[in-house]
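ERR on first pass: missing label on line 2. Operator R.T. fixed the label and resubmitted. Corrected input:
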Amino acid sequence: MTTPPHPDLPLPADEPLDDVDFRLLDDIRDMFDAADPMPADLPERIRFFLALRDLEIEVARLAEEDQPALAVRGAEQSRTITFDSDSLTIMIRIEANQDATVRIDGWLAPPQRREVEMKTTTDSLTVSSDEQGRFAFARVPRGTAQLIVRLGDPGPGGAGRSVVTPALIL
Amino acid sequence: MDDREPVTTQAGQPRRNARGAGTVRAARQGSEDALGQIVTELSPLLWHVARAAGLGPGAAEDVLQTVWMRLVAHLDDIHTSAALTGWLVTTTRREAWRVRAAERRELPADQELLAEVPDRGPGSEEQVIVDDQRRALWVAIGRLSARCQELLRIIAFAPRPDYAAVAAELGMPIGSVGPTRGRCLAKLRALLASSFGGSW
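pass 2 clean. output:
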């Protein structure tokens, strides 16, 4: 570093922003972007959440997540997640398929026949649970996903009541 | 909806906002795409508004979610991109203060704004700020008042066409020809000039 020259005059604060100011602001942005980046998937999760605003929803809480030790047989990986809401418990087991997808087996408690939707960033898949409350999605693309369980038939006003899980990363 | 302009992010290039005039209107009329576009573009700005207010990452996420939900209820009252950005900044700031005040009641802690920014343990800023100019900038910003640190951090993430609106929401004076440098940038440049001379 050379001998610090004294700034001959303080810059006027009431001048319009010039190129140096803009470059500085760009540098400040890059600096904070590197030091404290917004989680990359946050806008996506917010979009997910906003997309559900028209539904009468109950948001289920993550109750338990069980990820087995890394030393699993071969490349097989599975984890089990339980969500709780006032009217429903949703338990899912996620298993990796050979391709870039996952298989999801789920149970609703108390057991009931319901329409279960898996909403991903690219599309949505809908299945029905059986009388034992079981449901399955054979192939779900990896990425962000959210489960929606419809508790009733849509009334004349539109969508019926639903239980939604927080966004999951598959 | 196809009237959006490309976002130029290259250093030194003007950053335009990605929302054309029609995007806010489309979002108001219920377009998920338009709303999503706005969320994607402005969430980084709001993240830094919330973090600059001293919130931890988890609380910042919650605040953003709350603010976006509230925006949906208020879209009818917002007609321009600049007004939208201004509204979001102010609402995020207020909500962050509210949450922060509640946290403070539980856990009294008053740290320096910038000191708590790098959230990844000591020395992280040394790793990410590689060159001397960046390091000098980081040091110089650290010597500004907490208010200047907050203002510059927020302004730096505002889409350029919305600077004036954001500056106004932050209580900065606006000149007749648009946003002015302001005391914070003037002070920052003086600090940098005294350590780096002509290179700034």
